[in-house]
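Recap from last week: sequence in, structure out.
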Amino acid sequence: MKDRSNLIGRLIRRFRLQKGLSQMGLAELIGVSYQQVQKYESGKSSISIERLIDIAEALDMPVSKFFPSEKELLSEEESPYGELTGEEKRLLELFRKIEDRNTRKAVFRILEEIALHQK
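Predicted structure tokens:
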């Protein structure tokens, strides 16, 4: 049962992030505290089917999405950032080709600096 709570919690988090919602935003939509959403997502608190329906409605998706088939469970997890662009895929492909660990770290630091200091 705990495994099911953890799975549902991870799915709640994934779908919430895909919709661009914060824990507070989801909490407001379903009428609970953001701490309760944290407990649902971490699997520390079990969730009633009624509350799961509320969450599904808030996320504008069928409740069945929280009960994936075995095939879906084995498939790769979707990115909370949505579909990668061709440019993003190419960047990842090139980054993965860098074998030297220090070079990879240097490239990462350069990208971080550029991204954090844009105007």
